[in-house]
Write a structure and sequence with these properties.
Structural class: mainly alpha
Radius of gyration: 30 Å
Number of domains: 2
Helix content: 55-70%
Number of helices: 17
Strand content: 5-15%
């Protein structure tokens, strides 16, 4: 009976082209969209659109504007007309991510720069400030040196005429070297960076969203498959199954096995795209990846059958399951990375299967974690699924009585 139900569920899916597309084509497509959008969220691939107005109109401000316009990590453009009002209007209209108004000579005293940003783009201001500082350091080091000397003199002792001439000569030399394109010692030479993982840039985000999309669509597809419980109940098929000696046990187990297989095949489609397009190393971790996907399938199958078994109509099942899945996805990190959440919400995420599934896939495919570190996640996923399956069996016994 169990394998007969499994075969019925499989044939039902294979004969429904729309369901096949929604089950195996839509999840990889959504994953590609998520990966494309969020893989560059670390700032490596983001190019801010910066509109610039030079009100100072000095040689130094002109050099800075030229440096920003030529910066390959910005999409810089001059305001037209070249006024502060134009900058504010373009930022307010969303035509630019940020605006820069040069109020005075960068080599002078005071605060020469005003950055205009929209509060909905919180990262635009610090990123713009960083690019300005980099342009000053790389292309205008003489200005930075001159400003430093100007701050040192009032604090300590006034420079003599000879010292001022010597300092001016150094500034002019640095200016000439920068203008000629010769290397000038700068602050960034003091720093080096080291990646914590040997994975390529953005690969951690790719692995994250592959896992996030897998658990999200596994639950949606599992609920759709579990809906057959309600259809069979309405058509009277469930009554004939309940009349048998084993009751609904084989039928529920058959549906459960089908959902597990469906989830694994879904995961294959998503991670095949991840391997093909983004070079996520699935093949080198095939066995633990397969074990993780089976655990995700067990979790999805048990949860779906348990939720549907608690409802009486298809509308109830759709409403409850959709609300529950979206709520768990939001808290568990399938929609927004959990590291962007408040600490209390990050802790709450561990009460969702999404967080455990995502962490397991990311630990395996990005951090090259050992099998033993995956056991807690596997245990939570399998335990959640078996609890849901047990609930479905209990509800089936209650209906039989």
């Amino acid at each position: 009976m169990m394998f007969a139900m499994f075969r019925v569920m499989l044939l039902r899916l294979l004969r429904d082209r729309g369901a096949l597309a929604m089950t195996f084509l839509l999840p990889p497509l959504v994953f590609v969209i998520f990966a494309t959008v969020f893989a560059g969220s670390t700032g490596e691939n983001i190019k801010l659109k910066l509109v610039i107005a030079d009100q100072a109109r000095t040689p130094a401000s002109g050099r800075l504007v030229e440096a920003l316009l030529q910066d390959g990590r910005l999409r810089g453009l001059t305001a037209d007309p070249n006024t502060a009002k134009t900058v504010r209007r373009q930022v307010r209209a969303g035509k630019a991510d940020a605006g820069l108004i040069i109020l005075s000579d960068p080599a002078g005293s005071g605060t020469p720069f005003l950055i205009v940003t929209d509060t909905t783009r919180a990262m635009a201001a610090p990123m713009t400030q960083g690019r300005i500082q980099a342009a000053l350091s790389e292309r205008l080091p003489d200005i930075m040196l001159e400003k430093t000397l100007g701050m040192v003199e009032p604090v300590f002792a006034p420079l003599s005429a000879g010292q001022k001439n010597q300092a001016k000569a150094i500034v002019d030399m640095v200016h000439d070297d920068a203008k000629a394109g010769r290397a000038v010692p700068a602050a960034q030479d003091l720093f080096a960076t080291e990646a914590i993982s040997g994975a390529g840039k953005g690969r951690g985000a790719i692995a994250y969203y592959a896992g996030a999309v897998t658990i999200l669509f596994a639950l949606f597809s599992a609920v759709n498959a579990a809906m057959t419980l309600i259809e069979e109940r309405r058509a009277g098929v469930a009554d004939r199954i309940l009349a048998g000696a084993a009751g609904m046990v084989p039928a529920l187990n058959g549906k459960f096995l089908f959902i597990v297989l469906q989830t694994v095949l879904q995961a294959c489609a998503i991670f095949f795209v991840a391997q093909l397009i983004y070079d996520v190393q699935v093949r080198s971790h095939l066995l633990p990846w397969l074990a993780t996907s089976v655990c995700v399938g067990v979790c999805a199958g048990g949860m779906a059958l348990g939720v549907v078994a608690l409802t009486r109509t298809r509308d109830q099942a759709q409403l409850v399951s959709t609300f529950l899945i979206l709520l768990l996805a939001a808290v568990g990190g399938s929609m927004v990375p959990r590291f962007l959440m408040p600490p209390w919400l990050q802790t709450l995420g561990f009460f969702t299967p999404h967080a455990w599934a995502i962490d397991a896939y990311q630990a395996l495919l990005w951090r090259d974690a050992e099998w033993t570190s995956l056991y807690p996640a596997w245990g939570v996923l399998v335990g959640t699924g078996l609890a849901g399956l047990l609930l479905a069996h209990v509800m089936a016994r209650l209906v039989r009585r």
